[in-house]
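Blinded run. Sample ID left blank on purpose so nobody reads anything into the name before looking at the predicted structure. Input follows.
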Amino acid sequence: MKPQITVMELPVPTGGTPGLWTATGVRDVYNQIGHVATSPDLLRCPAVTVIAEQRRDGSLGAIDIDVDARAGLSVAQARELAALLLAGAQVAEQWTAVQL
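Blinded prediction complete.
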């Protein structure tokens, strides 16, 4: 028999950072994959983040790869962003297979 785990103790997928629980019984789990340094202002730099919805039973619902890109990119920066997207896709695939 598995020991009882409280909602606050639920593990998150590898590399994930948990958000706050909502009244509907879910929370977002984030993994910021990285950003492309296009500006000294980090908020203006394109960033790739994997976001998953975690339920109170520990299972994951929707898993999305979010791209926040507010800057024009050089060829080299576009390649860097593409590599981050591939890394994000790999994390999303790993999280899809996770049974917490």
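Unblinding after everyone has recorded impressions. The first helix runs from residue 75 to 96.
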